[in-house]
Write a structure and sequence with these properties.
This protein has a single domain, classed as Tetratricopeptide repeat domain (Serine Threonine Protein Phosphatase 5, Tetratricopeptide repeat, Alpha Horseshoe). It has six helices and no strands. By secondary structure, it is mainly alpha-helical. It starts with 7 loop residues before the first helix and ends with a helix. Helix 1 packs antiparallel against helix 2 and helix 3 runs parallel beside helix 5. Helices cover 70% and strands 0% of the residues.
Length: 136
């Protein structure tokens, strides 16, 4: 289905089905499968980059990676920072030109946690300030 989605309309229909599946995986804490599913949405050639399914999939990948990082940190797995660094790859682009504005506070809230876990105190404080500004 992913490869055959040549038009934006078809890509969006496929993304909707996959997105709902990915959300179900997130609800059951199956983060690895959710990441794979959301990455497939990002790989749809015809889906517009400013489509809500595309943007929310980027956010959900970052969220799932952060959840994995938190589990690893709790279990004293020293590679937990790798998950947080990977999460930034998906979250930071969402701070520029995000069309789905209702997602913006969540992006910054997650960035606060990710930056804090990576010891990036200044960036965490900046993200917190931005999140607070968005709530006004």
């Amino acid at each position: 289905m992913v490869e055959k989605s040549n038009s934006p309309e078809a890509a969006i229909r496929v993304a909707k089905v996959m997105f709902e599946s990915g959300l179900g995986m997130m609800q059951t804490n199956n983060y690895e499968a959710a990441i794979v599913t959301f990455k497939k949405i990002l790989s749809l050639k015809s889906i517009p980059k400013d489509n809500p399914y595309f943007e929310t999939s980027e956010y959900n990948i970052g969220l799932a990676l952060a959840k994995q990082g938190e589990i690893m940190r709790t279990n004293e797995d020293l590679k937990f920072e790798d998950k947080y660094r990977e999460a930034l790859i998906y979250l930071e682009p969402l701070t520029v030109n995000l069309k789905k504005k209702d997602l913006e506070p969540q992006v910054y809230e997650l960035l606060v946690a990710v930056y804090a876990n990576l010891g990036m105190t200044d960036k965490a404080q900046d993200a917190l300030k931005k999140k607070d500004e968005l709530k006004k």
